[in-house]
Amino acid sequence: QLQLQESGPGLVKPSETLSLTCTVSGGSISSSTSYYWGWIRQPPGKGPEWIGNIYYSGSTYYNPSLKSRVTISVDTSKNQFSLSLRSVTAADTAVYYCAKVSGDIGYWGQGTLVTVSS
Amino acid sequence: EIVLTQSPGTLSLSPGERATLSCRASQSVSSSYLAWYQQKPGQAPRLLIYAASSRATGIPDRFSGSGSGTDFTLTISRLEPEDFVVYYCQQYGNSPYTFGQGTNLEIK
Questions:
Q1: How far B6 CA lies from chain A's nearest CA (Å)?
Q2: Which of B33, B51, B88 is the closest to A48 by Cβ?
Q3: A8: alpha, beta or left, given left = phi > 0 and alpha = psi -120 to 50?
Q4: pLDDT tens digits for range B52-85
Q5: Which residue, among B5, B7, B24, B21, has the nearest Cα to B69 in the 3D structure?
């Protein structure tokens, strides 16, 4: 059974960089050639927002609204992929989910709340 | 970017009734690449429907999806107590993928 688990700081100061890692178990990132690995966030009380996807080979696609501040990377040796979001503000406070994406999203991590505050 | 508008924002019904949730897109969704999710408090969304009308693995047949182009519908034929949570639609036919703002299904 595929499982995804987010990890990283729950509190980030304004203007700093938010960094999260997703560890995949129960399957190999490299073997899922028909899927992408993605990040989605959900501000409190709002709908989800797609951040971006990465393919196991390293090719990426980002939401244009965040593209200037986002980097998603993959480490197939550790079966992990990561999110970096620079110059955060309070508007970036959200639950961040990692996911296995085939357009629709069938597998989600449990999510991790990241609060941006000094 | 395709904007998805869900209606109503809140739907009040009783167990056993039929629920009809709407998702309207600001432009046509390519190849009916539209999904529906259910989200319970404190949990990640769960995929119910993909490609507008295909049920995901393990989803009860009381959930059904329909529609094409810009108008899509999620129908729950007979509401169970556990169905009274929030539902989102998502389009993945055009980048960036986008989600609706949600419909809250509450017990009347």
A1: 11
A2: B88
A3: left
A4: 999 999 999 999 999 999 999 999 999 999 999 9
A5: B24
| Centroid of chain to Cα A41 | 8
Measure CA B44 to chain center: 15
What residues contact residue B42 under an 8 Å CB cut-off, 6+ apart?
none
Q: Given B43, B45, B50, which is nearest A48 (Cβ)?
A: B45
- Is the minimum CB–CB distance between B85 and chain A shorter than 8 Å? no
Q: Per residue in B13-28, pLDDT tens?
A: 999 999 999 999 999 9
Whether residues B51 and A105 touch (CB distance < 8 A) is answered with no
In chain B, residues with a C-beta closer than 8 Å to the C-beta of A106 are 47, 50, 56-57
Instruction: Measure in Å the smallest separation between the Cα of A6 and chain B Cα atoms.
Output: 12
Q: Which of B6, B34, B90, B97 to mutate to test the interface with A (most CBs of A within 10 A)?
A: B97
Distances (CA, A) of A112 to A4, A77, A93, B10: 12, 23, 11, 26
Beta-bridge partners for A50: A40
pLDDT in tens, A91-118: 999 999 999 999 899 999 999 999 999 9
pLDDT for residue A32 is more than 70: no
Label residue B93 left, alpha or beta by phi (over 0 means left) and psi (-120 to 50 means alpha): alpha
Do B99 and A63 lie within an 8 Å CB cutoff?
A: no
